[in-house]
Amino acid sequence: MNRLLPLIQNETLKIWKKKRFFVIVLVLLTLIPIFTYAQLRITETNKKNFKDWRNQLVQQISEYQNTLSSDRIPDEWKRSRQIAVQQLQYYLDHDVNPNSPDGVTFTRIFLSNAVTLFFPLLVLALASDLVSGERTSGTIKMLLTRPVRRWKILFSKLVALSLYVSLTVVVSAVLCYLISGALLGYNGWGMPVFTGFFINGSSVESGLVHAIPQWLYLLMEAGLIWVSAMTVALLALMVSVLVRSTAGSIVTMMAAVISGTILSSMASSWHSAKFIFSVNLQLTDYLAGSPPPITGMSLGFSLVILACWGIISLVVSFSVFTRQDILN
Amino acid sequence: MRPLSSENLWRIIGISAVLSTLLLLAGFGFAVKDMLYPKGEVFEGRANVPALPAGGKLSEGKDIAITAIGDSLTKGTGDASGEGYVKQVVALLKQKYPDTSVRLNNNLAVNGLKADRLEQLLETDKGYSFALRQANVIVFTIGGNDLFQIASGTSPVKAAGELNLNKLKAELPKDLKRLAHVLKRLHAINPNVQVVYVGLYNPFYDIPEYRGGSLQIQQWNERAYALLHQYPNMTMVPTFDLFENAIGRYLSSDHFHPNHDGYAQIAARIVQSLE
After folding, report:
1. CA contacts within 13 A on the Cβ side of A110
2. B9, B57, B121, B198: which one has the fewest Cβ atoms less than 10 Å from its Cβ?
3. What is the pTM of this model?
């Protein structure tokens, strides 16, 4: 243990000095204002067209119902629309605005949209060259000639990575709130959000629905995002150990993550796709009660799948890293 | 500013990262607990009932809010510009009353809506009641889908082939009863509003075998008028005459819904009836 802490410190400072975290903050600082502005425009248009958010919501429900009567819409869409209609109706019946224009709501929606693609991307920026980068620059020899067990080196890298993943999630949420709040207002912490929608086919059972304050919802959402981001981080670490070049390891992971988002939008009939990690990344959907990409998936299922992928990649990373020969 | 020493930098990053991790783990714990062992509880929303706008003449009020409900005719199906009669009514009312603000509150029409479903929506849907209570003009169409019994999905042209005039006759009393319920609900929700019901027309007038259907349609219109007549704030505008000789000019290519010009004629009539 006394040797481990300095190693972790070293790895943490290395990531910091490589300015990876600055890149992430910079990306967030560029993207969030853009989305906030888009949201502001939507809010303004809605204010012009609708006297009250209830009018807007009832109009939205009516429009969804109109698309349901069309024959050209695929059944899968219809199902998700039917579910959306019932949830919006629940909000309307209980007089709660699901899209209130404020900083906290914006943060909640931004985070849940970012979980499948944006956060994995940020994590890849941190994780992809963790080992392969040392190889490309040749510093791995320096690292491995020190009188430290190899697993300790990889473990310290893993801990440093986890620390940055946590920081990324928290900093994203904080920046999102601070920036969007400037335009949309800093309130919305206590607003009730409904969770516990149980989806059965195309109908929503609302027996277990309960309201939680939005701050708690946001915290829960961030926790779920952290779990899926950590799974991506573990996989990226494994790929970084296996693939010798940094570019190769980024491309491999990007392909895996992107194929997952494509699959979840089209693979509803291919049931075994639910065992792929990237199809399970959207954990926040379970909280919101949106239908899962493939029927039969649940929070427990997704967590188990993600845990399996995480454990496998840990085992592979450690066994390969401790045994492989370092050649040039 | 002097750069931070490595020691201090590590301390800052380390402590904030560990705190973040703990926070996120707590959030994850809450989420899992909440999702795996959910406890349903009744959420008592505040009941929100908007104040009824004052009744009386539109020209004397400060603003006009229109809520439209009903089937595809109110939706504006068949109008290539997407305006339907509802948006044209808004535009015409703006011309008629330049000093008042005219606004479309909501157009909640759903394609293929039948009278029984509308009755149900008026009965249970809080959003409908909300939007209707804010209005001082309600325009609506209903009954077309009930009478023609067009199964959703079949194109209206094909439906003409399935049209059975005897069945039409048999459906009439049942559907009128539903219309009576709809009117009763409308009156209960908002008694001050001016309600305009758009009468039915026979879209198959130019097909010799179905010309007779017009008589049934006319019967519907007459009985519907009798129902509307019970409420002094409700009225009906006829449309059947538009789609007899000028059927080619006013009907859209699906041979069932009006086109833009057809809706314009309906809109003009609605605006004439409002004061």
Report:
1. 27
2. B57
3. 0.86
